[in-house]
Amino acid sequence: MERKSSSEIRRMYLDFFKSKGHVVEPSASLVPQDDPTLLWINSGVATMKKYFDGSVVPEVPRLTSSQKSIRTNDIENVGHTARHHTLFEMLGNFSVGDYFKQDAIHWAWELLTSKEWFGMDPEKLFVTVYPKDQDAKKIWLETGIDPTHIVEIEDNFWDIGEGPSGPDSEIFYDRGPSFNNLADDDPENYPGGENERWLEIWNIVFSQFNHEPDGSYEPLPHKNIDTGMGLERVVSVFQDAPTNFETDLFLPLIHEVEKLSGKKYGDTKEQDVSFKVIADHARAITFAIGDGALPSNEGRGYVIRRLIRRAVMHGKKLGIDQAFLVDLVPVVGEIMKDYYPEVLEEKAYIQKVVQSEEDRFNETLDDGIGLLDNIIAEAKANGSSEIDGKQAFKLFDTYGFPFELAQEYAGDQGIKLDRAGFDAEMAKQKERARSARSKSVSMGVQSDLLTDLKTPSEYVGYDTLTVDGAVLADLVQNDQLVDHVERGTAELIFDKTPFYAEMGGQVADIGEIKDQDGQLVATVEDVQHAPNSQNLHTVKLVKPMSKGEKYNLSVNREFHLKVEKNHTATHLLDQSLRSILGDHTKQAGSLVEPGYLRFDFTHFGQVTEEDLNKVEKLVNDKIYEEIPVTTVETDLESAKKMGAIALFSEKYGKKVRVVSVDDFSREFCGGTHVKNTNELGLFKIVSESGVGAGVRRIEAVTSQAAYEFLLKEENLLKQTAGLLKAAQVKDVPSKVAQQIDNVKSLNQEVQKLQDQIAKDQAAGIFDNPEDVNGISLITAKVDVAGMDQLRQLADDWKNKKSSQVLVLGAEIGGKANLIVAVAEDLIKQGVKAGDLIKAISGKVNGGGGGRPNLAQAGGSNPAGIEDALAEAHQWLAAR
């Protein structure tokens, strides 16, 4: 077997299946599109679910891909094992209702063993099969494989719940006795067991059953093939590498880290872990950020932040104190440029994000060390030798401080960390994350009703909004194909239609269906694409309808034209954002309604008011220029050469539509548009906000809706002018400024009076401290305007040294407020303000906390303030 590079192996795999009639699907974005069940694209089949559950029928039923994927359930294992990764590539070949076991198995054997392709030694290959799947075993024997190399394993059944499922067959490569890490009689010492000798390189799933909601398994209407070959694993075989990390996919990164750290990979096992973690995480964050995800405190953004912080911490272990991950981005790009040239194209943007996050973490890390020092000091002061799990988790969750690092740091000072408590807090966080994830079914139960409807249907809505004599080709009601319907709702397919089916963010058309006599028979409520791409009309019946009859279809013109204007506006907005904010800005979603448009886009940081105004002006400038909007239909490659912008989330066929606004905007788009930008009349941004990690949202209006929005704003301004007694609207800002100055002056006067009241009260309440169990105590219910005055009283008490403990209560805004202060000499004896506030706050139905010398609490029961003050006496008396 010849040594091959990772690029050669990837290309060879795809070329092989291309020679077998497969279409090569490009690697999709790591950020899932329209799939709330996934945080990341985590496998090749994740991008094929719509084909496997029958919701979409692919143009060609044979597909192959090399799909970049991220899995985060084993982050802690990365670096400690030979093959755990966060980012990996999954090679796969897929059949959607076409070939099945016979071809899948024979082609797998051909690719692996043929001298023309991978050229592996057949004696090195072993396969596993499901015991009840004797068909697969029989087909494997047909390949000429040694019968003793076929192992039956009960676990070889792929099932993720409701939806397609079936037996699978795994292929293993025997790396030889030198890799054997188990005793000969170990029960895991076999192909398929947990060992290092037999390396799983490929899994073929024979998707032949529907796992029904009732738990039963019924034969699929259309059987599928789903396979997965881990590129990193196969490369390690071809390059005879002990682990995946000693391959051309990782070694350039490891060598770069050697230069940055001055350390040598292979010197110590502990150092090697750090090298591997950095190499792995650098790949993952580079691709994730390149696909539009950004560091944040939630969701996939939290994953990126965690990976960056984990890599930085391992860099520090190697002696790298400056930002360094930013230098690894171009290395990742060079490694992957053969199949992923976009990484180098987006290099500057990715580096900007990584640099910012590294700098931010290095600052946060110092804060984390300071907090840990305080926690250690407090533990020692309390005579404790352990930091509880909640505090350790806060260090990890807030400051990115890995448990192991905190444990090592604290251990140097004789303090342990509560691992069980930390794991419990981590488990709670994971459960919160799972609960926050959509409960949607990951893959639907396959149905052949709509899948089998292949009657051609032509969309003519680009040119006309009415069609006379459209033939009703298919009619579905209550999930059954019927020839006639009397009432209720139904789903219809016509031989031709002017109704736009919802797609690309543009909502579906609505309208009417009439018979040949001009009588209304149904209203069109929605239009979606059927699995075979026909426009499927959901209608509400007024009169009976029959298959084969002719009908007149009419789109609601006013609704349609408003949607067209807003759709064209999204194209102008998209390009304007790139022009003003930078080319890194990409569309992340849109919604085009008749009343408004919503446009989501990727951007690192907030959009300034100045930039937002520039974007809005640029869109309006293009409207005023009265630019023709043109559409051409061409092939995919020609469209790309024209400079048309494509959405990463969309799949395009052989023919595509390109919508152009002169040379300003040119995009792939199947939607409907105005003929000239002047039809938009006016464009106005209504709001701009953040909707997720690195994703911003603009809502805007055009034409009549924009005029009505501005008219409403003007009326509000006129009302404001009236209230301010401004002679003209233009005087409103100066009048408001005057009012702000007046309010500020009055607030200062009020504050002075409140402070004086607090001082007057202090004169009386600090004069008569009580003795409780040898401790001098002052308690009082006071009349103050807010917590600032309560804290002022505490400061006055501290300056006067009137007692050792102060407990004050006040009703403020209908709520109870408590404050406790403790003198330093008493703190040394173990009396802490935080402990006392917790003991008494229950009396006011509240809670609180604070430092040992000062703590405060709030509650919903002001009637309990006196009880809280009495409880303070009892608490001190019981000491």
Automatic annotation (TrEMBL):
It is found in: Cytoplasm. GO terms for molecular function: alanine-tRNA ligase activity; aminoacyl-tRNA deacylase activity; ATP binding; catalytic activity, acting on a protein; transferase activity; tRNA binding; zinc ion binding. It catalyses: tRNA(Ala) + L-alanine + ATP = L-alanyl-tRNA(Ala) + AMP + diphosphate. Its EC number is 6.1.1.7. Residues 736-763 form a coiled coil. Signal peptide: none annotated. HAMAP family: Ala_tRNA_synth_B. Consists of three domains; the N-terminal catalytic domain, the editing domain and the C-terminal C-Ala domain. The editing domain removes incorrectly charged amino acids, while the C-Ala domain, along with tRNA(Ala), serves as a bridge to cooperatively bring together the editing and aminoacylation centers thus stimulating deacylation of misacylated tRNAs. This is Alanine--tRNA ligase. It comes from Pediococcus argentinicus.
